[in-house]
Task: structure prediction
Amino acid sequence: DWSFNVLSIPFFFESYDELNAVLDTLTPVYQQRLLAKGFVLVNWGHGGWLQVFSKRPLQSVADLKAAKLYTSAGDDRLTQWYKANGYHPRAMAMTDILTGLSTGMIEALPTPPLAALAFQWHKQAPHMLEIGLAPLVGATVVSKATWDRIQPADRTILVQIAARAETQLKTDVPKQDALAVVLMSHQGLQVTKASGPEWRREAEVLAKTMRGQMVPSDVFDLALKERD
Result:
């Protein structure tokens, strides 16, 4: 469902508070949309906040646009959106990222610091642009047919457990992201903070190009209202 793309618009969110406020409002909308397609949204999961790791230092919007940027394979619409906005996306499977960095097929990738450390991508991409690109949001989704086979009492217990897990991830993941940056810095990671008005201008341009194209207009407007 294209409405989920609002959660990953580059530079749309500046904090977890903004993200959580939007999720609280949009969750019923997503539940209805998924239910209409035969799925049950059980809970949300946070995977960290995307920063840009690269082989060479990136400091400006022009630097980022010039780099061969990783994007996940299988989403050609997103790849074409990047191209239309002046970027150089290289679509590939996540399992090929390390090889892509080693061979120069890609020069930069958006990833949470926690993942960069876990998969050792930072060793091939030792520069991090602290940019807060977008949160990485996941969810537990179950087919309605499977969900309906679970006894109602057990479903209630599962929902309670899922809610506790969601709360725990909200607390733990930001801390783990921050710790990952510290650990990688001890291994030579160089961190540059993105600053200046050009990033805000780029954020506004990218958001406008997503409304009605990558994200349904009604969902975009609701998310924008809650974020602000």
Summary: Residues 152-186 form the longest helix (35 residues). The mean pLDDT is 92. The chain is about 50% helix and 20% strand.
